[in-house]
């Protein structure tokens, strides 16, 4: 039951006026924190369409030769204490569009908004829960590392339900935004053509979950509801590996809560 949170740019958003989308659905900034607004499928649609949990955000793609893009590249290089190979070109690009850079800084530090630069493309990117699959698993291979320990073998699998969930998100917003005359959304070809290698189009969120999942029955799980390994009196596991299902949200707060709960359980049992 090894799982991940998968995502991919599954649709192209076509609008003549992208600014309202940039003001409400691009990255927001407040008190040194970043917030990424997301859209989610309602419970009603999930039941009707038989989908997994899913959210989506917009990805704004900009011209790489703009002052905003050049300033972002310079900022990241400075943050990493690196010198870009095209430093002179980047500085020149920023200098030619000082007005655009001032607008970017005003929106970022005064309004708490992302750039109002006109994007060359807007992508719809769903983030999808993965269905628990007993064949998606971690085993030990016959290869060994430098310490002589078996190297783990990850057999990670995606199923049709994940693709169907992504398509449902795209189709739902396609209909809703089209009816409201907000924007047109075109699904990418690989999403709607089931004969393509759509699995390779999805990326991961570095959120590994499952594999030592929680269950009351040892046949379908590794730990019980108290995070104790079935059949072993003094072995406990706390982390995202015990998640029976992954949902779509980041797992950190949940796994920390599980660790705190387990610490309390062990403390009171001593």
Q: Give the overall shape, derived from the CA principal axes.
A: globular
Q: What are the secondary-structure elements, in order, as H or E?
A: EEHEEEHEHHHEEEHEHEH
Low-confidence stretches: none
The biggest beta sheet reads: 7 strands, antiparallel
- Indicate the percent of residues in helices: 25-40%
Write a structural description:
By secondary structure, this protein is an alpha+beta fold. The chain has helices at residues 19-25, 43-49, 67-79, 87-96, 98-111, 160-179, 189-192, 252-269; strands at residues 6-7, 11-14, 28-30, 33-35, 39-40, 54-61, 121-128, 137-144, 150-155, 184-187, 203-204. Strand 8 and strand 9 form a beta hairpin. Helix 3 packs across helix 4 (87-96). The chain is globular, with a radius of gyration of 23 Å. The mean pLDDT is 92.
List keywords for this structure.
about 270 residues; alpha+beta; 7-stranded antiparallel beta sheet; two-stranded antiparallel sheet; 8 helices; 11 strands; about 35% helix; globular
Short description, anyone?
This protein has 270 residues and is of the alpha+beta class. The chain is 34% helix and 19% strand.
